[in-house]
TrEMBL record:
Protein name per UniProt: LtaA protein
Cofactor(s) for this UniProt protein: pyridoxal 5'-phosphate
Gene Ontology BP annotations: glycine biosynthetic process; L-threonine catabolic process
Alphabetized UniProt keyword annotations: Pyridoxal phosphate
GO cellular component: cytosol
Family: Belongs to the threonine aldolase family.
InterPro entries to which the protein is assigned, alphabetical: ArAA_b-elim_lyase/Thr_aldolase, PyrdxlP-dep_Trfase, PyrdxlP-dep_Trfase_major, TPR-like_helical_dom_sf
Record domain Aromatic amino acid beta-eliminating lyase/threonine aldolase: where: 198-411
Organism: Symbiodinium natans
Molecular function via GO: L-allo-threonine aldolase activity
């Protein structure tokens, strides 16, 4: 608050209001007043009219059609699918940011805001008057999290973070920054403002059904059904199979590593074991048969008791024993046994795409062996949430009913499925490369005498794009050495240590102790796949030296 010469007290809002009263054509005053308002606030002018934030920005644009900041601010006030009419034109969020850039090519924030308003892979024509830039700008949907210092730009050149941030002001670089300082290395936004997107209502919209069909075709199935979570997708699928089969035994054949047994795969030790026993008892309408060896994938011999009306669930890959996967021969034999007995075969394929390269076949060839397949959108793809069930039309129809009964019919799933669609289109073709990278890294680390004396892999060779790494040593010393690598190289070797490992029998309290080992889960995901193998090896050698110093041993 400020006191003027006449003795009256004024705050920011009242000063901007007074500016508008004195000069109704003062565009900057309208813009500045709007900046003070919350999107839901209203303000009354002296003429009795009521204005909200958006209408004030529109007034500023109408008073000054060259006011770049007002165009950009109006764009920021819009939701992803909103449009406004200004003059004779209808404007989307992206169109407003683009107009701000064209009016003022040095408006740095507008470039960043435009990046957040474009749909994935969209190429946008800009008219940047007098500025030496390429006429076409491409904004990739997801720039991987890079640990190294440089990134390759769309024009093929490499630059560091400082160069990228300097982009809007340097006319010698014909490219644009992808986000502001905090988001330069990660562009991961939901964008649909520039396409005619129909938001789903309770899971129904043309675009959502089109995406479900797109994924179902990719997996070789008749129908796809989006779910907000994988647990819900699998429960609905199993209920649908049991409901449809006549007769149905209500028996589920599960491997000891099955997510359906353990339910929460992030728990370790006694808590995990207690949860495992309890979860089996909480699977209503099903009688659970746990078959197979925890340390190995499911085998045909595990299904000797299979009979008419049973359901077999095979997880590909099996997360809890390091991503082990059934061999192709075992899968085909399991399929034969299931068909012969009149049972059904469901795939827990949360990480299916990470295991497909192991088989050397396309995803639809693997899925052809199963009656239904569930995939996750945040495991391997890095999506925010969600899952998809791919199966026959009849099973999908019953599963949709169970989705509603089990509380999965949200008012809208648009943020989740739109994000999933972009991750699918961005990363579906990347898994062969990731698998090869993980194979190369594991082979190099296993061949290093120093590293092989400190750690081991489970399984010894990757069978998917994930693997468990067991470290020998005290947790405090291991974590201190890891922190030293992070400080020296900026490289995280693991996210967190997960304990001694899962018990071989889910009914036991904890894993048996053979030696002092702790394990972590390593994923060759979109981020890690951007890190060169040489940098990983450098980090692990640094880790070995730091651990030796910590323990007072020669490196």
């Amino acid at each position: 608050v400020i006191q003027l010469a006449d003795g009256r007290m004024w705050d920011k809002r009242s000063l901007f209001l007074r500016g508008i009263e004195l000069d109704p054509g003062y565009a900057l005053a309208y813009n500045n007043l709007a900046n003070l308002l919350h999107p839901k606030d209203w303000v009354r002018l002296s003429d009795g009219t009521c204005w909200n934030q958006r209408s004030l920005y529109l007034a500023a644009i109408q008073l000054d059609p060259t006011f770049a900041v007002a165009f950009n601010n109006l764009g920021l006030s819009l939701g992803p699918w909103d449009k406004v009419t200004a003059g004779s034109a209808c404007w989307t969020r992206a169109a407003l940011h683009r107009r701000a850039i064209e009016l003022n090519p040095r408006h740095a924030c507008a470039y960043s805001d435009l990046a957040g308003a474009l749909r994935p892979g969209q190429r946008l024509a800009l008219s940047l008057r007098g500025v030496r830039r390429g006429p076409i700008v491409s904004f990739p949907f997801a720039c991987p999290v890079l640990q190294q210092e440089t990134v390759v730009l769309p024009d093929g050149r490499a630059c560091d973070k400082a160069d990228l941030l300097a982009g809007p002001f340097d006319s010698d670089r014909p490219w644009l920054p992808m986000q502001s300082l905090e988001g330069v290395w990660v562009v991961h936004v939901l964008v649909a403002a520039t396409e005619a997107l129909e938001a789903d209502i309770y899971g129904r919209s043309t675009e959502l059904q089109s995406f479900e069909s797109e994924v179902a075709r990719f997996l070789g199935k008749e129908a796809g059904l989006f779910f907000p979570s994988g647990t819900l997708a699998q429960r609905a699928a199993l209920h649908a199979h049991v409901q449809q089969m006549d007769p149905s035994s209500g028996r589920l054949f599960l491997h000891p590593t099955s997510h359906l047994i353990h339910h929460d795969c992030l728990r370790d030790g006694p808590a995990q074991a207690r949860l495992a026993r309890g979860t089996v008892d909480r699977l209503p309408a099903f009688r659970v048969e746990v078959v197979g060896d925890f340390a190995q994938p499911m085998r045909p011999s595990d299904l000797a008791a299979l009979r008419l009306g049973d359901v077999v669930v095979v997880e590909i890959p099996q997360r809890m024993n390091g991503g082990r996967s059934c061999s192709w021969e075992a899968l085909t034999e399991i399929r034969r046994l299931v068909t012969q007995s009149g049972a059904r075969l469901h795939m827990d394929g949360a990480r299916l795409f990470e295991a497909v390269p192991y088989y050397g076949r396309d995803a639809h060839e693997v899925c052809a062996l199963f009656d239904s397949v569930y995939i996750s959108w945040y495991k391997g793809f890095g999506g925010m949430a969600g899952a998809l069930l791919a199966t026959t039309e009849s099973v999908a129809s019953l599963a949709a009913d169970w989705r509603a009964r089990l509380g999965g019919s949200l008012f809208t799933l648009t943020p989740q499925w739109l994000d999933a669609r972009e991750q699918f289109r961005t990363y579906a073709g990347s898994f062969n490369q990731r698998f090869a990278q993980l194979q190369e890294l594991v082979e190099a680390m296993s061949a290093d005498p120093t590293l092989s004396s400190l750690l081991r892999f489970e399984p010894p060779k990757p069978e998917s794009c994930m693997i468990h790494v067991y470290l020998r040593g005290d947790e405090g010393a291991l974590q201190a050495a890891h922190d030293g690598v992070l400080a020296a190289l900026g490289l995280k070797l693991w996210s967190r240590l997960r304990g001694r490992g899962y018990p071989a029998d889910f009914r036991e309290e904890e894993a048996p102790i053979e030696e002092e080992e702790l394990y972590f889960e390593f994923l060759m995901g979109p981020a890690n796949s951007q890190i060169p193998t040489e940098l990983f090896l450098e980090g692990w050698r640094h880790f070995a030296e730091a651990l030796a110093q910590k323990l007072g041993r020669p490196p």
